[in-house]
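Batch manifest, entry 17 of 40.
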Amino acid sequence: MKSDSIKKGIERAPHRALLRAVGVHSDDFNKPFIGVVNSFNEVVPGHTHLNTIAGAVKTGITGAGGVPFEFNTIGVCDGIAMNHPGMKFSLPSRELIADSVEIMAEAHRFDALVFIPNCDKVVPGMLMAAVRLNVPSIFISGGPMLAGKLHKDGACRSVDLISVFTAVGGVAQGTVSEAELEEIEIAACPGCGSCSGMFTANTMNCLTEALGMALPGNGTIPAVDSRRLHLARQAGQQVLAILKSNLRPRDIITRSSISNAFAVDMALGGSTNSVLHFMAIAHEAGIKFPLSLINEISARVPHLCKISPASDAHMEDLDLAGGIPAIMHEIARLLDGECKTVTLKPLSSIYRNAHVKNHDVIKPFAKPYSKTGGLAILFGNLAPGGAVVKSGAVDPRMMAHKGPARVFENEEDATRGIMGKKVRAGDVVVIRYEGPRGGPGMREMLTPTSLLSGMGMDSKVALITDGRFSGGTRGAAIGHVAPEAADRGPIAAVRNGDIISIDIPSRKLEIGVSAAEIKRRLKDLPPFKTGIKSGYLRRYVENVGPASEGAVFKH
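Output type: structure tokens
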């Protein structure tokens, strides 16, 4: 075992002495050492309860004959980091999470790992670490938050964090009072768990199931449900079986299993950020997975499920409807059922006997919301390297749109412009210099999109950026435009009034300017200079690659 290098032989006596200091007994030196990678902290709602999850995991490990060692990673709450300089650190935290897990696991020679993520960058950061280390591993998330309930005038409706952002736009428009905003704010997040819609965290936790790295229920069982603790204990037990079988992440995470994950993503209409993160995971695994493949998957997988922000349904509704196994059962003909999973059985064994319990939440394969998936990759002279849109959350009237550009150089300017009513119906808002290098950190544009939604403009205005969008975004919001403005991509050449054409069904994103004119405009631009002079973000700017390749470090 890998841990023998710190526990076997007379020359390891100093190692054993240190391990005895943390409670390891003599008998334990004959057992596997299991790292429990916990992202617990007291800042993020999705992570405040993870010590309880870790306790159940460690009980499972001990009962199955292993010795658990818990250590922690950082974790950023994108909602709290939103719309201020802190969001520049969210995506960069993914690389630090992967690096820190690698350091801890290699330095302490763990035989296997149980990963406990929950929120946006923690899940992909840990998946990147898992394939990089390639030791037997399993994932158990903290689970989704329940939707909030707002009782008013004898009626009850579900609300979530996006309801709060949207209500802020309503206040700006004069359609929502500040008192109503406070009522929504108080009700929206009733307790622990990852925010209750099909946002990035829940998308990634669901897709970890489809990928084969987590047990059924990982993505949808609510954080406060006792089944979550049962699943955590089971994960702790299962990691010993995985270790005994020597099943490793790179046996599970393959081109076929990533295709399976994207197929489920299309059926779910998940977050656009899944594209960014799975590109990064594929890179770590040494798998070539070009963006164009995602459109091929989208073309054959129907969109079966609409969860907030695309509807009033939430993760608890998806769980009651059968969860990810039920989704996979509906699209089984489009999946590679032979892919390996942490259950030690093929993927098909998980979904073969599953069934949909509520066809209002999960539509039948033959009666989908649309015949193509809920995500699309757009290409054209404005995005030669591709751009991503959550097509399942776009108003049908905006699936094809042509309008004048309204250009902003950063998110703050765009927010002020929208609040100041400088954006008109029909406009195409362009927010640039928010890419991986330009931002830096590729900030999420949830504030601008939510303001537009709250002002009733999400069906009248498109938004294009080289930054990202929250999984909670709805409307014609097109992100990840590559190359980014900081790399002299065509988005840097756009001027106010240029006509931009969006054709989501045809996967096109074009600017009505000739190639020669785009080249001339770009040549006239001064060299990009970051305002970041020191610290981690400076190193990030110097090393990060394009969004189209997952925004991973180039070196």
